[in-house]
């Protein structure tokens, strides 16, 4: 009888531990996430090119790797890590070769003056280097065969010798020209010389280049180093039968990106990034998709009745286009036949689909997918009807499936002033889903034309998962100006670029407190880029935050307009130039209300940031120092706006921000450690009790 009681007790105790518990995601693990910047099918549909990106800590850089996935055999082959990411790799017309730019041609002399392109043979598994000259490559595209490539390069400034190291500012911006060459080679006989023929010069930088056999055209998009005039961003073509003529395909206030040709080469598709100027020719809208009939120049909008933002697309062989459309926090797959205006939603998983590609010769589709509950990987389906049962073909982020990640949910509230419904995401600490009275960290997305999504992309500028794992309830608000909620929601931010989204966020915090979810005495706020600007603004409007984290955030929007590389954005958001609406610039700028700040603030910036000028962080730090507010500023050498050169920079940024939260956020990180310690002590005591109890039972037997 006693043995039965013992066994029953033992089974009850073991049942408490029968569910496998996953360990918490730690700091170092968080930064070892892999992303997939590019997918491309070969023309035959037999292979899928996969580009992966992950940190390389030993080399202080990111490792960009190309892989060749065999669709039939379901195998993956390594191609190279010597990859420059400024130009995407391109499949040859036959699908037998891939052309790409090497990061370094020589491992010995990394400062070589000559530029190269590499030709990878799928069948021979070899790489052929092709010397292309000293000019910097801008874009490339294959011709209609495997033996020639069209290449756009940046012209070498011939006035360098005259001016030495002296810079003529305006001339340095506008005097950016490109040269288009045709590179001919024998892919079957590498010993034969390479021929380089001049096509023509153009008086602007080329961003993307395409060749179509339809009427023998080269199509390209223009670009500019500084976005001051949206007329600098247009689409052009050259008739290769008469290269003296340069023809314009567009004339609008749109930045055209992601150019693709239809299967027959008669239509050009592109994503439109609408950013209206003060010329008022267009209103600001979310991203849209268009096509141009190259025969008659007629432009058609696709997904015309879709109320969200279009983030990507792919063209199929059966006169259809698959569209990645964002509504709210989700990016889903839609399709539209080119002969109709109806948009069909294809039911899949909740979350974010991206980098979608389709095979020209088959109905197969590949894409990258993730959600806040599912890790980012590459998936493959034979046709769209299999979307709900898509097969994962990579396993780069397996480690994270073994970690206890935070649970999330969508949260809604209203702005009490105009009763606008606002949406955001809540990330709960592990094992505390739906808990109450939690310490809050508000992480504000950049943009403003962006959104926090149901997407798992673990990074230095998207670290809600890590913050939640450290015990914070993380609140990501999709404030006014965010994409995915309609064009009016997006445009309402104009002339109120900080005060309106600021109130959206503050009313969200009020509602969280009212619902009992958040401890009102443990509030923190932070953000990057526009999220950093809003952070700087919010701490001038309220003293409720215990701590602030400002990353690449501006405090004086007048000087920001004068120094940044996209001044068109500021003049549109503020309703005009500083001399036209000075009252808006003054009322919607943190620097003029800095004396209201009482929040200890951590500031980070890249040394070479031209998007939000580095000087803004120095101004902010100096102002808070004069006001005796606890402040710390760290800068990253050679770092730009995105801290994309050295992964250690992003890791150190978040490390120091967590320290600042621990110091000033009234959220003791030692509490979690203490809880873990108590849990371990309980487990040990229980095990000891079971052992001693067993000895007693055995003795009585």
TrEMBL record:
Protein name: Peptidase S9 prolyl oligopeptidase catalytic domain-containing protein
Signal sequence bounds: 1-18
Keyword Ion transport: no
Pfam families reported in the protein's UniProt record: Peptidase_S9 (PF00326)
Domain called Peptidase S9 prolyl oligopeptidase catalytic: residue spans: 465-665
Species of the source: Adineta steineri
Biological processes annotated in GO: proteolysis
UniProt keyword Iron-sulfur present: no
Assigned keywords, A-Z: Hydrolase, Signal
Molecular function terms, GO-annotated: serine-type endopeptidase activity
């Amino acid at each position: 009888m006693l043995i039965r009681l013992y066994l029953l007790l033992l089974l009850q105790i073991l049942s408490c531990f029968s569910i496998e518990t996953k360990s918490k995601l730690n700091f170092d693990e968080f930064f070892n996430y892999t992303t997939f910047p590019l997918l491309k099918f070969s023309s035959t549909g037999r292979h899928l090119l996969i580009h992966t990106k992950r940190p390389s800590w030993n080399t202080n850089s990111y490792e960009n790797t190309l892989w060749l996935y065999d669709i039939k055999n379901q195998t993956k082959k390594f191609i190279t890590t010597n990859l420059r990411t400024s130009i995407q790799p391109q499949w040859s017309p036959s699908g037998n070769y891939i052309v790409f730019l090497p990061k370094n041609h020589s491992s010995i002399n990394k400062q070589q003056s000559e530029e190269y392109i590499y030709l990878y043979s799928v069948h021979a598994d070899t790489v052929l280097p092709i010397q292309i000259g000293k000019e910097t490559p801008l874009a490339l595209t294959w011709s209609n065969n495997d033996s020639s490539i069209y290449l756009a390069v940046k012209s070498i400034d011939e006035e360098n010798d005259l001016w030495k190291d002296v810079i003529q500012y305006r001339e340095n911006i506008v005097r950016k020209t490109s040269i288009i060459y045709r590179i001919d080679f024998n892919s079957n006989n590498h010993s034969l010389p390479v021929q380089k023929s001049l096509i023509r010069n153009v008086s602007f930088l080329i961003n993307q280049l395409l060749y179509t056999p339809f009427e023998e055209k080269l199509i390209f998009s223009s670009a500019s180093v500084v976005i001051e005039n949206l007329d600098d961003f247009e689409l052009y073509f050259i008739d290769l039968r008469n290269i003296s003529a340069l023809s314009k395909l567009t004339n609008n206030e749109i930045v055209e990106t992601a150019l693709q040709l239809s299967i027959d080469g008669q239509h050009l598709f592109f994503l439109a990034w609408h950013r209206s100027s003060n010329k008022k020719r267009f209103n600001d809208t979310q991203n849209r998709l268009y096509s141009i009939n190259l025969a008659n120049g007629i432009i058609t909008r696709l997904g015309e009745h879709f109320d969200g933002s279009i983030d990507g697309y792919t063209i199929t062989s059966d006169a259809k286009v698959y569209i990645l459309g964002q509504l709210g926090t989700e990016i889903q797959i839609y399709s539209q036949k080119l002969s109709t205006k109806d948009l069909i939603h294809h039911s899949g998983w909740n979350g974010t689909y991206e980098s979608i590609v389709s095979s020209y010769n088959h109905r197969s589709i590949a894409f990258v997918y993730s959600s806040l509950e599912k890790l980012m990987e590459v998936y493959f389906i034979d046709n769209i009807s299999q979307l709900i049962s898509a097969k994962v073909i990579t396993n780069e982020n397996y480690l994270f499936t073994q970690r206890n990640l935070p649970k999330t949910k969508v949260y809604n509230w209203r702005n009490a002033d105009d009763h606008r419904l606002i949406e955001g995401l809540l990330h709960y600490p592990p094992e505390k889903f739906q808990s109450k009275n939690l310490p809050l960290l508000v992480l504000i997305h950049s943009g403003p034309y962006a959104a926090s999504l149901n997407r798992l992309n673990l990074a230095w500028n998207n670290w809600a998962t890590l913050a939640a794992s450290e015990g914070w309830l993380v609140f990501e608000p999709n404030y006014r100006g965010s994409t995915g909620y309609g064009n009016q929601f997006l445009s309402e931010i104009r002339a109120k670029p900080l005060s309106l989204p600021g109130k959206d966020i503050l009313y969200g915090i009020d509602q969280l407190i009212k619902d009992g979810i958040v401890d009102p005495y443990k509030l923190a706020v932070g953000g990057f880029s526009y999220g950093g600007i809003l952070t700087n603004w919010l701490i001038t409007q309220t003293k409720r935050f215990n701590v602030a984290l400002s990353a690449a955030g501006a405090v004086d929007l007048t000087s920001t307009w004068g120094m940044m590389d996209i001044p068109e954005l500021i003049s549109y958001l503020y309703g005009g130039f500083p001399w036209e609406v000075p009252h808006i610039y003054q009322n919607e700028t943190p620097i003029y209300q800095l004396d209201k700040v009482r929040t200890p603030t951590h500031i980070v910036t890249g040394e070479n940031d031209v998007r939000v000028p580095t000087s803004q962080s120095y101004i902010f730090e100096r102002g808070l120092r004069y006001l005796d507010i606890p402040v710390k500023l760290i800068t990253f050498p050679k770092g730009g706006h995105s801290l994309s050169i050295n992964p250690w920079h992003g890791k150190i940024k978040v490390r120091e921000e967590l320290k600042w939260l621990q110091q000033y956020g009234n959220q003791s990180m030692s509490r979690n450690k203490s809880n873990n310690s108590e849990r371990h002590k309980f487990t040990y005591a229980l095990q000891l009790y079971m052992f001693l109890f067993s000895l007693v039972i055995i003795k009585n037997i």
